[in-house]
Amino acid sequence: MVLEDVSAIGLKKLDNGGNPYTNLWQTANRYFYFDRFGSSNLMSSGVYEIKDWATAREMLMSTEFYHDDIQKLSRSGALIVPESDSVVASSVSYDSDWYLPYLLILGGAGVAFLVSYLLRNKKIAPFLIEDGYLIFNSLNFKKYRIKDIEKVMFSVVKSNYRTTSGYVGKMQIVLKNGTKSMRLRFSTRLTLQSESESTVTAYIEELQDQLEKEGVKTALVR
Question: pTM of the prediction?
């Protein structure tokens, strides 16, 4: 900032040697206080003009001088923000692009954990039957007309072929025209625990019974 009617050559620092942080300056019969921290949320300005010599002398003789003191003097009118022109303005911007993907990942993981917790141990069938269609209970909700289905094939497989941690079920729809659907993997319920082969087999038998009541043939491939 550039102070109106004030030149740097004419400024003289006032110092009593007692408080090196009291940054007071005089030019002719005008007095100024330069805050070493500059303007901020706490300080409306980095430069204040002191109303009179009495106030300047009081500030000069003070051995302790803090932001609270400046704010009190400013509210009382003893310090004012002088007329000036801005030469350079600076600001700090924070680029949030770098951490946005991490927030999305953490948010997605949090939602998944919350849903899993709320629906823990709840059975969610791998398919729906509605209006004559068998609908995969997956992200794409692929549906097949029941009268076009030749058979639904089930199997029990290891959840991870590299380990023996547990088992999951698989189902695949075979249509009368010979085409086959994708293989859909499923568990007996929402859980983070491993499931045994017998548990998954028993659940598949329940699903077979449900489909056969709708007139759909099924088979469990051992």
Answer: 0.46
